Each structure stands twice: as structure tokens, then as C-alpha cells.
Amino acid sequence: MKKPFTLKVNGQYEFDLSETDVNALDLIKTHENTYHLLHNNQSYHIEIESNNFNHKTYNFKINNNSYQVSIDNMLDHLINEMGFDTNAGKQVSEIHAPMPGLILEVSVKPGQEVKTNDPLLILEAMKMENIITSPRDGIVKSIGVKKGEAIEKKQLLITFEAQ
Asked: What's the CA gap between 154 and 163, in Å, rounded?
């Protein structure tokens, strides 16, 4: 049986871990985003610098060295084994507002090249700031909103050039 978690570090190194492996770690939380790990008689100071739970990516600082880690679980393994690529269908040409709100910031301009997960704009809704990120690599064709504009649900926000 495959290990339930595969960690890919800095896009290069892969490590397979089981739930038992994870539970066996000698890990203590020291502050909100910091931990102390004792492994093979070596001490490690770990800080979570940022995370994206939806894309299962994390930026760690371990003993003052930075690492980007992505985590795949059993479902991700199954999807890959079945021949489905979770990113294959991301041929999104337009982004629409997921909810009504107020545009606080527009971070891109028409003609600008963006990468997947780059911030495009900030939408305030229900007293929360929501960062709308790019679902794919591409070039911004047009922006349908302005800073300070009140918008409705499903309103066109950004259009990408065809790929």
C-alpha cells in the first residue's frame, strides 16, 4: 500500500510518509506558527512562513533555511493513477465574482503576464478581505472592475487572452 502522504520539497525532492510516520514525530508547538522538532538526536526550529490550504503548499523556514513544500494525500495519488490531472482543465478564460462586495485593490493590468496563484485583486465581502488569485498561467486581456467599485455576484472581473 502506498504511503498516504507525499511531500515534494522545493519542487525537487520527494518523501513518502505514512500517518504513523507523522504521528511518531517528536514535534512541539512553541508559538502560533513555530515548532521544535527533535529527529535523530538533532534539533530543528521550524516556522511556517505561509500556507495555501487549497493548493496544499506551505513555505517553511527550518533552522533559517527556507523550503517550499507541497503535500499530496491518498486522493491525489488515486486521481493521478486514474490518469486525471487536477490542473489539466484550468483553461479558464474569465473570472467572475464569487460573491457581492467591494473591490479594494486591483493588482494587475491588461497585458500583464500572470502565473497560477498570483494575486489579481482583493474583494471585500462580509467584512473579510478575499484575495482573488489567478487559476492559471496567462495574460490578462481586460479588467472589468475598478478599485472602490461595488460589484454583484457573478459579475465579470477579469478576462484572460486565449491560449
From this structure: 23
Taking alpha carbons only, the member of 98, 135, 141 closest to residue 118 is: 135
Residues of CATH 2.40.50.100 domain(s) within the chain? 94-160
pLDDT tens profile 96-120: 998 999 999 999 999 999 998 899 9
SS (H, E, C) 79-143: HHHCCCCCCCCCCCCEEECCCCEEEEEECCCCCCEECCCCEEEEEEECCEEEEEECCCCEEEEEE
Of the candidates 128, 104, 127, the residue with the CA atom closest to the CA atom of residue 119: 104
Cell of 70: 507541497
- Where does 94-160 sit in CATH, by number? 2.40.50.100
Q: How far apart are CA 124 and CA 129, in angstroms?
A: 4
Contact 134, 114 (CB under 8 A): yes
pLDDT higher than 50, residue 1: no
9-46 tens-digit pLDDT: 998 899 888 888 888 899 999 999 999 999 999 999 99
Q: What is the pLDDT of residue 90?
A: 55
The answer to whether 16 touches 77, Cβ cutoff 8 Å, is no
